[in-house]
Amino acid sequence: MYNIAEKTFKEALKHAQNVEIYIQREKTLEVDIQRDRIDLAKEQHLTGLGLRVIEDKRMGFSYTTDMNRIEDAIEAAVFNMRANEADENFKFSKPSHYPHVKKIYDKSFHDLEVADVHEFAERMINTVFDEGCEPTSGGFTASHLQTFLLNSNGVETEYKSTGFSAHISVNAKENNFKSTAYESDASCLMSLEPEKISQAACKIAKNSIGGERVETDDMSILLDYHAINGILATFTSAINADNVQRGRSYLRDKIGEEVANPGMNIYDDGRITGGLYSAPIDDEGTPSQRTPIIEKGILKNFIYDLYTASKGKVESTGNGMRSSFSSIPTVLTTNIILDFQDKIKIEDIRRGMLVTDVLGAHTANPISGDFSLEANNPFFIENGEIKYPIKKAMISGNLFNILKQIKMIDSRIRQIGTFITPRILIETIRVIGG
After folding, report:
1. Same structural domain for residues 292 and 431?
2. Which of 160, 336, 344, 409 could disulfide-link 423, Cβ–Cβ 3.0 to 4.6 Å?
3. How many structural domains are present in the chain?
4. DSSP H helical segments within 14-172, as ranges?
5. Helices 194-207 and 114-130: angle between axes, nearest 10 degrees
6. What would the pLDDT profile of 287-309 be if each residue is shown by its tens digit?
């Protein structure tokens, strides 16, 4: 990748004062499950180059997957640069010390073949049948990514990472009743256990068969890991500096104020060992770091890339991220850690509802924090005991209000999506019965 980057870099410097080369080389092994069959198993290889140029405070961008058409990509980037408006906040990263991030690369990936991912999927399917359920869909993906970044400020860095993810959806039937459930898992290491993923999905599905109605009322809500990821997605929008600067965040003027439970801390940490979004650098070349967002309930920071940091007259927090080489960096979270001073046991819940997952998280208002979501696979809790499944229920509330009520349930720490968290309890929220 260095030779490609150097060639592009030297040629681009003939047309612009500031140049950044971003290259990704990816290998992916993937298998899809449709009902009880493996629908597709494939291996893909892709190399892509993203090019940014800056001159006279104007920036241009282009990308290519054809390394024989580098000159066309340079021409396109320069054309875009000249057509864009000047903005003094366009920046490239500068050389720095980069942290060593552990357990984000598993060399055993290189021993995998399509037959191995096929076998993984078969084990998930077979376990579903062994548990007395039916698979409806699923999949397994293993990927290896090499990332290289070079810019005219003297930054030259690269790293490699791996990712493994699996998911399964199942049906469970008993007499005339049917229920569905979903489970997934992901890791930077090849540590996933297909049997456990399928067993977890089947357990939820079987326990959800039948169900009783619940009356509309205020009660405590125990959020499982997938539900946390859905409900707290709005929070990541609120701490995004781009939304803050555009006036699209409820938290925009609340730095230094108490916005959450005083016993709770929230961090964005791009260097945590084994984090799904950990790396030594962000996608602009800024070193990854641990950024305190909330400490003892007090809002401390937002997250920034280089552009929003320049606008805000602060330093980047290492949150300039790209979806791929084909896009420019934007502000995104890495790994969001929820840390609590105190914890309670499920036995302490007198009356409440366990919510396994939620539907409709994308409909939550990202500015006000208001939401009304369907509870997926909910269960009624009484005196710390899960009594029975609930047929249908909605939960309605405001994210920024419930942040002040959140408590940690004594449970294992798990990462689903961007959130690394235990199960959590919301003391009081509106439950709308079906």
Report:
1. yes
2. 409
3. 2
4. 70-83, 114-130
5. 30
6. 999 999 999 999 999 999 999 99
Between CA 383 and CA 388, with CA 386 as vertex, the angle to 5 degrees is 120
E strands, 271-423, are 290-295, 298-299, 320-321, 330-331, 336-340, 343-344, 351-359, 370-382, 385-389, 393-398, 406-409, 414-416, 419-421
- The residue behind tokens 């803050």 is 244
CA distance 241 to 222: 30
Angle at 182 between CA 43 and CA 171, to 5 degrees: 105
Kindly state the DSSP code that residue 390 receives in the 8-state scheme: B
> For residue 281, what is the enclosing H or E element?
none
pTM: 0.95
Closest CA to 5 of 139, 146, 141: 146
CA 280 – CA 92 distance, rounded (Å): 17
Q: d(Cα 303, Cα 309) in Å, to the nearest integer?
A: 9
Whether residue 135 is found in the same domain as residue 89: yes
**Pair type for strands 406-409 and 343-344:** parallel
pLDDT digits (tens, 9 = 90+) for 102-135: 999 999 999 999 999 999 999 999 999 999 999 9
Helices (H), strands (E): how many in the chain? 9, 22
> How far, in whole angstroms, is CA 216 from its chain's centroid?
32
**Range of the structural domain that residue 175 is part of:** 2-205
132: left (phi over 0), alpha (psi -120 to 50) or beta: left
pLDDT of 324 > 80? The answer is yes
pLDDT tens, position by position, 156-182: 999 999 999 999 999 999 988 999 999
Query: Do 197 and 216 belong to one domain?
Result: no
Query: Which ranges in 315-357 belong to alpha helices (H)?
Result: none
What CA–CA distances, in Å, run from 116 to 142, 143, 190, 195, 345? Answer: 10, 13, 12, 15, 40
- The rounded distance, in Å, linking the Cα atoms of 427 and 402 is 8
Single out the residue in 177, 205, 233 at which a domain terminates. Answer: 205
